[in-house]
Task: inverse folding
């Protein structure tokens, strides 16, 4: 195997991880999760998780408490609503009689209604704030990715996200 094959690609090297809110070349940003995480078989998995935009903003004291809770609640609703596109199911999993709870389509529809109501509170589905929230909290994009697509510049996207977290906290009654 050639030595060049063992090195990270040029594309990978252009992306810098954040450690304590600062750029780092040492690897991905991760933090230890307080509780253990079990896989499908009950084995304890490695208790680290990659930090997202909300974690970074919280570590910088840009958002706190209720704002973080509101952002996480929107992320959960968005995930339950299955709005991020199609994903491949685990084909090795054996489906039995109890594998479906029976209310899956209703849960998805309910989550979509919650996401719609939240976006409506943020100014409607075509507002700048809703677009940033959809991209960052929903799809998991970074603020830099939002800026690179030309939707908003990074500072404005950050401001819109912080304001949206405040508005969502009020909307969710937190």
Result:
């Amino acid at each position: 195997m050639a030595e060049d094959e063992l090195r990270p690609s040029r594309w990978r090297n252009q992306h810098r991880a954040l450690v304590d809110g600062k750029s780092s070349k040492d690897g991905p940003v991760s933090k230890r999760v307080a509780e253990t995480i079990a896989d499908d078989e009950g084995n304890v998995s490695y208790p680290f998780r990659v930090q997202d935009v909300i974690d970074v903003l919280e570590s910088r004291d840009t958002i706190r408490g209720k704002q973080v809770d509101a952002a996480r609640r929107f992320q959960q609703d968005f995930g339950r609503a299955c709005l991020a596109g199609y994903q491949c199911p685990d084909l090795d999993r054996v489906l039995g009689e109890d594998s479906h709870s029976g209310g899956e389509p209703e849960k998805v529809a309910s989550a979509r209604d919650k996401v719609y109501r939240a976006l409506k509170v943020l100014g409607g589905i075509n507002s700048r704030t809703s677009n940033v929230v959809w991209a960052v909290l929903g799809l998991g994009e970074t603020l830099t990715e939002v800026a690179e697509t030309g939707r908003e510049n990074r500072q404005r996207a950050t401001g819109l996200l912080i304001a949206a977290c405040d508005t969502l906290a009020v909307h969710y009654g937190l």
